[in-house]
Amino acid sequence: METVFTPWMSLAGGALIGLAAVALMALHGRIFGATGILAGALLPSDPQDRGWRLVLLAGMISGPVLVWMLSGSMPEVQVPVSLPALVIGGVLVGIGVTLGSGCTSGHGVCGMARLSPRSIAATLVFMATCGATVFLIRHGIGG
């Protein structure tokens, strides 16, 4: 399996994520943690807090539609694993997010920008685990 490196698209995507994180903090005083935003939309502790969460999630989901409207084609997505592997991966990510008190967007983007020691440690663990997983899958298991 070949990994496609897209530096300009990656840079643009990162800049948009950073801009969204800054805007959410400036306008609502909230951390841009995607998992926390989803959890708060599904099970809001404050009903007035649900609206902005739903709008933000709709924006995340509608991104590929915007690309399609501007370019005339949908972004190509390849998922080289089975449905059971996706489900297991999703469950493991959910457990990790719960144990780590946040996700990569909350810790990696917002927490590190605030120089939070906890977020820096969490992000280092995310990245080390990701690297080990890719190495194991590609070289150990042969995926």
Write the element-wise H/E pattern from the N-terminal end onward.
Answer: HHHHHH
Which outline best applies?
A: globular
The whole-number mean of residue pLDDT values reads 86
Number of strand elements: 0
How far apart are the termini?
A: 8 Å
Total helical elements = 6
Strand content: under 5%
* Radius of gyration over C-alpha positions, nearest whole angstrom: 17 Å
Low-confidence regions: none
How would a textbook summarize the main sheet?
none
Q: What structural category arises from helix and sheet content? A: mainly alpha
What number of structural domains do the residues give? 1
Helicity level: over 70%
Written overview of the protein:
The protein has 143 residues and is an all-alpha fold. Helix content is 73%, strand content 0%. The protein is built from six helices and no strands. Helix 5 (104-113) packs across helix 6 (117-141). The chain is globular and about 50 Å long. The termini are close together.
List the helices and strands and how they pair.
Blueprint: H1 7-28, H2 34-42, H3 50-71, H4 83-99, H5 104-113, H6 117-141
